[in-house]
Inverse folding.
């Protein structure tokens, strides 16, 4: 019996309680009876028959598995990009010892101590000897033999903060929260509603400036009680299966970057997106008929508002049958798509998982071998948009391959990217529904006993629910990769699980047109980012409801520097294009979108780094400034890369806002060049036309002249924005913007270093890509006496006192050093 409370409860209720209605009958594994080294790690067999397996997948990453039964299942995980390595280990102690010590053969890594009795207790130490993760002896690892649940608890300090957990409608740090992972279709979710669409059971802890990470790899319903019930510990558990968790100690620096790099080494990294997908995207539920789509596209070009992508929501289909076009509204799709392409637009269509049950629908007939089945072995049917539907079992390789192949026709017609919705899976009314129909109910999905293949590990829906959406996105991604191997796939998904970044971008579903939602989009997207998912965004303006002109304008600004920038709105809402609101708003909204295009070369560089390291473009402040207490809990600021501090206005009628500048760097106002010292706060003017934005002193970032879409930018020269007065470095990554030539060397990285008033350019003499044609120095109070290019006076400079900017044009010949003589 595991806790006094449980003992009391059982004694009080005695035998009157039947197993099914009893509180969880937690049982601990009990004393370790045998210790054995295997090629999978060290196995500890306990008195109850439960077995633990501990291994190192990297010197600073420990994996712990526990099966309540005597055997482990085949080691398979949807989260992992590849089978995790098992490093050779040294084991000190045996079943007779009070504790066993495990470490890698190579010294200098983390180590693990397992207490052997009365029941196993895991402690993970960082390489510097610091105890990073300690299971709580008052509530140790346990399982419930009746319902199969597994869990463990970990000691916590009351000041410890937690970030990540994928997509949660919660404030920045998730300490004191109880969260469930169960992908749910939750239209118009209010702040605090949990769970919503995505399940990423991974988090990064921050304790006095040091980080470690924990990943609970289970696609079942999982839960995290982060000190809510008992402040001195947190609990993580899964509703069945094995307990399978990883501890990332963050290497010798206990660093969140290292944690995220290690986590994404395991679960994979987001592919470099095609450049067009980083442009502004316009969507609506739905732009129909074809003439409406043409009108919207034309309006962007006429009004000179940059845009790259237009969306086709469910209205384009014929009776919502996937991969069809309405013959009435879209009679000649290829012609329409050709016209859009000619204007520089890319087209994305929505594709849902539900296949209309209709014997006259060839896709339905062809899919029969691949549909999800009920417990009785029948094709599972449920209602969604097309009426009664069948649903591919995306946990079956054959189903994924089949579904992936369906994209061929749309690709041939010219569709460029795909949007997978409703893949929690969400269904309208579950079979056998007797309760009143609530809008939000975790049961609005397949019956829990529906059957899935599980890639050869068959199981019920309860087991695979949380990975269904990700496997749909995978089917799409793999289909596109196979059909168009020379193009980078663009996939957008609503539901996902750990590792979803390998296949898809993610948006935060049906948010609402409220100021609360705008404010919440920052912690939501920043936390998704540090959950390993770099390509994230929220519907601009809020999906449900109609935003005021002011709310839309502020939201567009807040989203302009988030990785995925798309306006989208529900069917019953007012029109919502950047020019809908008229007057001054149109001008401001255009300028906001132009700002994004100006900064696209920087965003693209960040994406290339993210593809290599897993460190996301959008970052909460604590991620870069973990030792600065002032940065830990900020809800309404974020960093784009390490160099841009973004502080959107998220309050109605505010025309100024308080901005905190993280300690250790100085920050230069993008617009007027004012310098702010790190560790300070200031009230910053933020009239409606201004997004408060700051460049880190010592930074050098690439910018572009405005273009109407990304393809139009290709030939335009770059300008490097420099914040002088400190030491720093900048990079510019360039490639063809699509395709995989970059993997064979078709890319360029320019390096720029800043040394107070001197800038050194490490740039190839001849570039295949965009040339650096100017430097723009920010925060210059008075025009310098001289500007030297490689020691000789510069030809063309322009100083603007109002914005404190100095523009230095570079001649066509290569320039190495630019120096300001003040
Ligand atoms: O039940 O396709 O979140 O973006 O516009 C609603 C229609 C289904 C939900 C998505 C939303 C999309 C809508 N879909």
């Amino acid at each position: 019996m595991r806790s006094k409370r449980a003992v009391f409860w059982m004694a009080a209720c005695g035998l009157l309680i039947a197993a099914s209605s009893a509180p969880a009958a937690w049982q601990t594994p009990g004393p370790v009876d045998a210790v054995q080294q295997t090629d999978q790690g060290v196995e500890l067999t306990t008195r109850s028959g439960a077995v633990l397996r501990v291994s190192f997948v990297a010197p600073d990453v420990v994996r712990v598995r526990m099966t309540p039964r005597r055997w482990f299942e085949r080691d398979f995980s949807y989260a992992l990009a590849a089978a995790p390595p098992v490093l050779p280990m040294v084991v000190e102690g045996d079943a007779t010892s009070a504790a066993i010590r495990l470490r890698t053969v190579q010294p200098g890594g983390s180590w693990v101590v397992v207490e052997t009795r009365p029941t196993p207790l895991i402690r993970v130490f960082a390489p510097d000897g610091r105890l990073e993760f300690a299971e709580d002896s008052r509530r140790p690892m346990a399982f419930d033999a009746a319902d199969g649940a597994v869990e463990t608890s970990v000691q916590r300090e009351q000041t410890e903060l937690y970030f990540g957990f994928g997509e949660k409608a919660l404030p920045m740090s998730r300490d004191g929260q109880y969260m469930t992972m169960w992908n749910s279709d939750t239209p118009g979710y209010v702040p605090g509603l949990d769970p919503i669409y995505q399940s990423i059971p991974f988090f990064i802890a921050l304790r006095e400036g040091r980080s470690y990470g924990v990943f609970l790899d289970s696609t079942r319903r999982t839960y995290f009680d982060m000190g809510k019930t008992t402040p001195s510990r947190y609990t993580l558990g899964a509703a069945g299966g094995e307990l399978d968790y990883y501890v990332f100690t963050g290497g010798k620096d206990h660093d969140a970057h290292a944690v995220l790099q290690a986590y994404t080494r395991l679960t994979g990294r987001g592919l470099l997106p095609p450049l067009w997908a980083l442009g502004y995207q316009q969507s609506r539920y739905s732009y129909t008929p074809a003439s409406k789509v043409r009108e919207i596209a034309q309006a962007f070009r006429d009004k000179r508002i940059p845009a790259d992508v237009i969306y086709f929501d469910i209205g384009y289909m014929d009776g919502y049958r996937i991969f069809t076009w309405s013959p009435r509204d879209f009679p000649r799709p290829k012609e329409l798509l050709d016209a859009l392409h000619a204007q520089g637009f890319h087209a994305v269509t929505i594709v849902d998982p539900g296949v209309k049950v209709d014997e006259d629908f060839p896709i339905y007939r062809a899919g029969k071998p691949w549909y999800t089945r009920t417990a009785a072995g029948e094709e599972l049917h449920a209602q969604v948009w097309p009426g009664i539907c069948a649903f591919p079992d995306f946990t079956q390789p054959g189903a994924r391959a089949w579904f992936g192949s369906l994209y061929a026709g749309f690709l041939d017609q010219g569709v460029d990217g795909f949007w997978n919705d409703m893949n929690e899976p969400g269904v309208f009314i579950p079979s056998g529904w007797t309760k009143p129909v609530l809008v939000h109910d975790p049961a609005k999905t397949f019956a829990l006993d529906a059957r899935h293949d599980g890639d050869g590990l068959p199981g019920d829906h309860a087991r695979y629910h949380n990975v269904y959406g990700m496997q749909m996105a995978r089917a799409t991604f793999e289909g596109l990769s196979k059909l168009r191997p020379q193009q980078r796939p663009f996939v957008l998904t609503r539901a996902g699980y750990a590792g979803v970044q390998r296949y898809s971008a993610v948006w935060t579903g049906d948010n609402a047109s409220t100021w609360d939602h705008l404010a919440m989009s920052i912690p939501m997207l920043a936390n998704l980012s540090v959950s390993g998912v770099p390509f994230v965004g929220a519907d601009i303006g809020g999906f449900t409801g109609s935003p005021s002109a002011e709310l839309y304008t502020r939201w567009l600004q807040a989203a302009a520097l988030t990785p995925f920038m798309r306006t989208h709105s529900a069917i019953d809402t007012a029109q919502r294009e950047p020019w809908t609101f008229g007057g001054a708003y149109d001008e401001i909204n255009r300028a906001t979108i132009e700002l994004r295009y100006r900064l696209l070369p920087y965003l693209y560089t960040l994406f290339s780094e993210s593809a290599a390291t897993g460190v996301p473009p959008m970052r909460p402040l604590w991620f870069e400034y973990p030792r600065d207490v002032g940065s830990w809990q900020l809800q309404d600021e974020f960093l784009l890369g390490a160099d841009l501090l973004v502080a959107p206005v998220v309050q109605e009628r505010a025309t100024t806002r308080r901005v905190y500048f993280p300690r250790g760097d100085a920050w230069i106002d993008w617009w007027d060049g004012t310098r702010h010292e790190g560790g300070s706060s200031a009230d910053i003017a933020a009239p409606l036309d201004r997004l408060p934005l700051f460049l880190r002193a010592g930074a050098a970032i690439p910018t572009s002249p405005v273009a109407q879409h990304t393809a139009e930018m290709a030939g335009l020269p770059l300008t490097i924005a420099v914040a002088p007065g400190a030491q720093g470095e900048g990079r510019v990554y360039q490639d063809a913007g699509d395709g995989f030539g970059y993997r064979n060397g078709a890319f360029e990285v320019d390096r720029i270093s800043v040394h107070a008033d001197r800038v050194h350019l490490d740039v190839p003499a001849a570039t295949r890509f965009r040339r650096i044609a100017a430097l723009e120095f920010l925060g210059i109070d008075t025009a310098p006496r001289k500007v030297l290019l490689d020691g000789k006076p510069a030809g063309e400079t322009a100083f603007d006192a109002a914005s404190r900017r100095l523009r230095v044009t570079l001649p066509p010949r290569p320039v190495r050093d630019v120096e300001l003589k003040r």
Q: What stands out?
A: The domain at 26-267 is CATH 2.60.40.1760 (Immunoglobulin-like).
